[in-house]
Amino acid sequence: ASPSPELLIAWILGQTKRIRVGSGGVMLQHYSPYKVAENFNVLAAIAPGRVDLGVGKAPGGLPLSTRALQHGLNPQEKGSFAEQLTQLDRWIRPENQSAEEDVRATPLPPVPARGFLLGASTESALLAASLDWHFVFAAHLNGDPELLREVVTAWRQHSVREVIVAVQAIVAPTQAEADALAQKVEVWGVELANGQRVTVASEEQAYAFARQAGG
Fold this sequence. Notes:
By secondary structure, this protein is α/β, with parallel strands linked by helices. Among the domains are: 115 residues, TIM Barrel (Alpha-Beta Barrel), CATH 3.20.20; 34 residues. Helix content is 41%, strand content 15%. It is built from nine helices and eight strands. Strands 1, 2, 3, 4, 5 and 6 form a six-stranded parallel beta sheet that branches. A two-stranded antiparallel ribbon has the order 7-8. Helix 1 packs parallel to helix 2, helix 2 runs parallel beside helix 5 and helix 6 packs parallel to helix 7.
């Protein structure tokens, strides 16, 4: 994980020649879609055909971090996540822009970054399908098999692309070492009084999230 995936992607692109490199998830709600498009258009211009833009809907951190990242942003002007993703899609794909477009996220790379939406709901899957993006089901955060079947079914009804499922994998020299590492992995769900639900990695983070959110 990196708080600045664009910088890390640029470094990896500079060290490689053939592999595709992308973000596991730019938390779009914190940023201007236009600025994200500019960053990834620069990366795609540097390494055409090798850049993937993964976007996540969740805040990806504790409430204090979210407030710090969104300081000065007007929630009304920001719009819904679907509106933000639609704006981002328009600015990374020149074919979606009209000839009279006043604002362009330059440079316009010869091969745009491929879009991937990380989510764990039918709503997210349908949003990705509507924009012809790839969809990644976040099973590492929500491993409910019934929900996975429901989302995959909806996805296949609306997109010809293959669904991707993100899972946690532990690799170690021996089974005993792998089992020991697995025992340290925790997934905690937090549901606040306002209905907000998040997934965190420890009991301490769960309490910290609730405390910072005022729950």
